[in-house]
Amino acid sequence: MTDLSKIHHPISSLFTFPQKADEWDQYRLSDEQVSFFNENGYLGGIKLLDEAQFEVLKKELDEVADLHHPLHHLFHEFHSNESSDPNTVLFHSLGHWRISKAFHDVLWNPAFIMAAYQLLGEQGVRFWHDQLFCKPAYHGGVVAWHQDYSYWTRTVKMQHLTCWCGLDDATVENGCIHYIPGSHRWGLLEKPALAGKMDGIKEFMTDEQLAAFNPVPVELRAGFATFHHPLTIHGSYENHSNSSRRAFVLNVFADGTLSDTNEELLKGVPIIPKGEKMQGQFFPLLFSPNLAEK
Length: 294
Hints:
Blueprint: H1 31-40, E1 42-47, H2 51-64, E2 77-79, E3 91-94, H3 101-105, H4 110-119, E4 125-135, E5 143-146, E6 155-156, E7 160-166, E8 177-179, H5 207-211, E9 216-217, E10 224-228, E11 234-236, E12 245-254, E13 258-259, E14 285-287
Antiparallel strand pairs: 1-10, 2-3, 3-4, 4-12, 4-14, 5-11, 6-13, 7-10, 7-12, 8-9, 8-11
């Protein structure tokens, strides 16, 4: 078994990667969808996976979640329960693309890549890191309100994008993601504990922001995704339903983003000195504009 971060192309037949420019057209977002994202800071309802694909991913999620997996040491983070509430559970990890063929290849899913390219303003798309968020039935914990970039200030400039994709149907009852529309224009706020108090971020908000704090739930069928801006405030409530809520997250940034630290960017990743371009084994280029133009 090998560290799959050394391989920067699809290694399975799970997805068909376009070979010609016009083959990308079927995956393009509409102008209306891009406008909605720019106005609200998020976009939901984007189909990324068919049933056969998300069933493969669910199987491999069970495999990589095993503490005894022979490549477990390759995770950047692994929390079998990151919840601050002893009565709830939130499984959260980073780095499974290094271990699972299916989660490795989902980086090169053309439906994901084209949407990311468009929502980044048609810049090259470079991988940042992946995440798994799993809330078991009956006692799944919260993901507190937060802005993603508040955890990513070690990279500049801010030209990042997050994709959240469900492996189960995501509903209000089982803890689907919620957004605060327009909050991507509020600037960078202080960061709360990700699995801590749900409303912790409100301590750092102005009266005007609190008045505009109107959560919108985004329910999704399995295989469908949301995308959001790095400053969009989002979170998810507990899962008290009888169904699990499993999801994976793909975080990317525009090609040309720089390291802003002389410390580790992710655990186990060689240091990229401050001011140098984010690239190399752990930050592969997924898409360049010329692929859509040839």
